[in-house]
Amino acid sequence: MKLGCHVGMSGSEMFLGSVKEAVSYGADTFMVYTGAPQNTRRKAVGELKIEAGHALMREAGITEFVVHAPYIINLANTVNPETYQLAVEFLAKEMQRTHAMGSQTLVLHPGSHVGAGEDAGIAQIVKGLNEVFAQVPVGDRKVYVALETMAGKGSEIGRSFEELARIYDGVADNSRLKICMDTCHLNDAGYPVREDFDSVLEKFTRYFPLNQIACIHLNDSMNPQGSGKDRHANVGFGEVGFDALCAVTRRPEFANTPMILETPYVPKVGSKTRDLAPYKHEIQMLREGVFRENLIEQIQNEA
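Request: output the structure for the sequence above.
Response:
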């Protein structure tokens, strides 16, 4: 399995620091933002320590990583033209930065229609992706925009495979699209990840072949199936459960698919300002296939 987690990218080491963090967790893949997910401020590509990061990746045997587009990109917005135009321009730049960093997968939340309705939102996403792909040449290595399966919170687009398929159907060059499957979001959108993941994949393959899944966000959920709330839980401590998530990591269809943990940090005892990354322990637990009920306490005790 390719199992990793979200890591940071900041300070003087930038991407090199991202790789160091992933290696410290025992990960063999990882996911980064190219800058803060809430704004458009970005360091120049030349300042990201990309070559040094790739050298450490080769040393550690890491062959693939994923980039996540920032949350401020909303291609589905028909209400505010400035928001839509920012989304098009910034997504094009993020695709170029993803290529420069050496990744082929840029995960994107499809967007929210902000009250205009699902049909209007999907049409706007299609329009935006067509504009972006027209601006960004494929180049020597294709960067795929991986549309993430969403939980159905508010006016989110992408709460069903059918909605994602409608985006595919409208995009002129949909060979540049992939899917990011999030287990928490699937659960919260009403798919039976815990009880019958086979049926989830069967429904998926009505619209897409399984090789369209570029990566998996492997998250537990704080909320019951169909809640539409999108709150991640630590592995085994939510409504999806350890057994179901562990089974996903062992499916032969996903042997080469990056699986990324985005689970919550653990509060540090006695500190109001610092939380503890759970990823080293969750990765080890999933690889061993044995759930640790005392995982949170173990993380806190080792801090």
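The CA atoms of residues 12 and 294 lie 36 Å apart.
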